[in-house]
Amino acid sequence: MNKIYLGILFENMKRKISQFASIAVVILSLVQGSTTMIQAEVKVPHVFGNHMVFQREIANPVWGTA
């Protein structure tokens, strides 16, 4: 292979890596921004209280508002 072909190949690889990095940064920014914006004040009925114990491996329905 000659140097010109390798130079073109290398430039194409650099461009693709740069595009991938740009897309990854955008996706990570969106994910981080969406997780910080999702917040809610969760309220459960007074039936549930601090230091409650549930039985292991049993389905426990919990309800409330957010």
Give an account of the 3D structure:
The structure is a single chain. This protein has 66 residues and is mainly alpha-helical. 53% of the residues lie in helices and 0% in strands. It has one helix and no strands. It has one helix at residues 3-37. The protein is rod-shaped and about 75 Å long. The chain starts with a helix and ends in a 29-residue tail after the last helix.
What key phrases describe this protein's structure?
single chain, 66 residues, mainly alpha, 1 helix, 53% helix, rod-shaped
Helix content: 40-55%
What is the general shape? rod-shaped
Number of helices: 1
End-to-end Cα distance, whole Å, is: 64 Å
Structural class: mainly alpha
Number of strands: 0
Radius of gyration: 26 Å
Please give the largest β-sheet: none
The topology string of helices and strands comes to: H
Kindly report the average pLDDT value. 79
Show unreliable segments: none
Q: How much of the polypeptide forms β-strand, as a percent range? A: under 5%
Protein topology:
Layout: H1 3-37
In short:
53% of the residues lie in helices and 0% in strands. The protein contains 1 helix and no strands.
